[in-house]
Amino acid sequence: MTSAALVRVACAVVATFALAGCGTGGYTSKGSQGSGKQLFVKSCGGCHTLAEAGTAGTIGPNLDNAFSASRDAGMKSSTFTQVVHDQIMFPITTPSTGAPGMPPPDKTLPLCSSVQGSAFCVDDQEQAAADIATYDGAVAGTGAPAQAAGGSTNGKSIFQTAGCANCHTLADAGATGTVGPNLDQAKPPKSLVLDRVTNGKGVMPPFKGTLNPQQIQAVAQYVSSVAGK
After folding, report:
1. Cβ(206)–Cβ(200) under 8 Å?
2. What fold characterizes domain 3-139?
3. CATH number of 148-226
């Protein structure tokens, strides 16, 4: 979904609230910001940039850019929460602009009852969507600093929390992403992982502004040592 499309959706939501006599009070979510951040990093960060989450995905819209102008204009976080929630649960899978569509919730938030092994899953899609929407609605476009991987220098932890697991398959990390190469099959050497994580390539964004040099070294060492094992 393009940034322009997100803005159009936001405007439509605002119009709906106005017609209902609610101003821009929006949707009051029962979601958890703490849970929402964890879910966002695992499920959404591989495709979206969000500074506070430390994610730098470029497949989908940069969420800070998409919402910052509307936030500066006075639109409330509750409105963004509604927009994000509805886009997760009722996504535009084939935009008319030709931009990449957003997968349905069965792909972004697969139910644990339908997933085997240790792959990412949720017990309740609606609650997970509410959590992500509450978190995203509160922080997108605020200029909050990146908190990528929590400062961790544990390669496995970084891989799981910096968005890598959303795009790549790596058995040791319980990752089953299909956007990027299957790392167990590719078995990349450390030098190649260092280059790709640092500089990016194709749809993969560079992480040199998101992860520090020690974190990049750690994740490269981790991937090269466990891939295909």
Report:
1. yes
2. Cytochrome Bc1 Complex; Chain D, domain 2 (1.10.760)
3. 1.10.760.10
Contact 227, 187 (CB under 8 A): yes
Domains 3-139 and 148-226 share a fold: yes
Task: Give the CA-trace dihedral at 65, 181, 38, 63, to 10 degrees.
Answer: 10
Beta strands in the chain (DSSP E): 49-50, 55-56, 169-170, 175-176
What's the CA gap between 12 and 74, in Å, rounded? 16
The encoded tokens of residue 201 equal: 């390539």
Is 79 a residue whose pLDDT tops 70? yes
pTM strictly above 0.85: no
Single-letter amino acid code for the residue at 174: G
Check: CB of residue 131 under 8 Å from CB of residue 40.
no
- Distance CA(50)–CA(141), nearest Å, equals 8
Question: In three state form, how does the secondary structure of 84-119 look?
Answer: HHHHHHCCCCCCCCCCCCCCCHHHHCCEHHHCCCCC
pLDDT band for position 143 (50/70/90)?
Answer: confident
Distance (Å, whole) CA 175 – CA 157: 12
